[in-house]
Amino acid sequence: MAFWNRKTKNTPPPDLAPENTTGSEQAAAPNLNVSESAGESKEKGAKSSWWRRALSKTNELLNTDIRDLWKSEGRLVDDDFLKELFAILVRTDMGNAMATKIRESIHTQFRGRRIEMDEAFHLIREELGNALRSKQSPLARSTSGPTVILVVGVNGSGKTTSIAKLAHRLTKEGNRVLLGAGDTFRAAAVEQLRIWSERIGCDIVQGEHGSDPGTVVFRTCQKAIAESYDVCILDTAGRLQTQSNLMQELEKIKRVIGKQIPDAPHEVLLVLDATAGQNAISQAKGFSQAAGCTGIVLAKLDGSAKGGVVVPIAEQFALPVKFVGLGEGLDDLAEFHPEEFVKAFFQ
Ligand SMILES: Nc1nc2c(ncn2[C@@H]2O[C@H](COP(=O)(O)OP(=O)(O)OP(=O)(O)O)[C@@H](O)[C@H]2O)c(=O)[nH]1
Ligand SMILES: [Mg+2]
């Protein structure tokens, strides 16, 4: 499904800033251990297979543990059962509140009776669906001029890879996308994004290693305006939510953007590593307060048995999960669909 209905053509703009802009004549990309092929076949598959894959680790845990609860047909809903079920649910990181809600719901409806596994699954999915249904929110966009997406998060959470996937997706949908390599701190960060930009076929503004990220962001926005790009996605260096100087740097970056493009950034996406479990929740808290995040990209869901973490994040911070990352390839990003997500639980 397309995020936007832009009809712009995906033709590269004239190269106005050759020293900052990559072109096809540049050296072939070194091997960064990324794959592009995985996505090809996935696109052809049903949506549900995406989500089954995304939750495969979570379901591994659920399927072994939860199915053990039903060794014999039907299972009496007594204190032992409710306690065991609760413990399993909590292990998916869906949070005590949600696990309690599910336990209470099963208690109320089935107390002293036998419950079939499918009945329990149905009820769990229903509760998860109720919690997540209202949390879906598409990517915001500008009404005029380029849409600016600032991407933030802790070190290694998956920011740069998620930017590449998002840029790829938006480019395929016909948008002209400009990347801004605002991580001037980590030595190989600019090169990493440059390589992705070549693979995607989109342009990039780069700065010198160690230079002021605000300057790169400024130049990126200028180019985006001057050459009428549809979308501009800005990478930033990883930082901890507790590093107040670095959080202030994000504020400064936002001011630089806002001075050039009113209402921008239109999105401040926080990239969380799904394998971080409860840490992801404290990151969501810190970043949403300090950086004014507007949405979450939950990366590495494919490698996490804690897929339930989507629930407390969406519930506690009024921060919609906009995308989830399902792998390292360019096509491994899916828009978050609560219904699909919930359906994929226990599959
Ligand atoms: N399995 C899996 N791996 C991912 C996903 N997203 C990112 N990665 C991997 O996670 C590692 C870190 O990703 P980056 O995109 O470099 O993370 P980053 O947040 O930009 O890191 P810094 O710039 O160092 O802060 C890389 O090896 C990526 O390939 C995902 O959705 N699934
Ligand atoms: Mg990065």
Which percent range fits the helix content?
Answer: 40-55%
Which residues sit in consecutive blocks of at least 5 with pLDDT less than 50? 1-44
What overall geometry do the principal axes of the alpha carbons give?
Answer: elongated
Q: Whole-number radius of gyration?
A: 22 Å
Question: Order of strands side by side in the largest beta sheet?
Answer: 5-4-6-3-7-8-9-10
**List of distinct ligands in this structure:** guanosine-5'-triphosphate, magnesium ion
Number of helices: 13
Structural class: alpha/beta
User: Largest beta sheet, briefly?
Assistant: 8 strands, mixed
N-to-C SSE string, H for helix and E for strand = HHHEHHEHEHEHEHEHEHEHEEH
Quote the distance from N terminus to C terminus: 23 Å
Quote the beta fraction. Answer: 5-15%
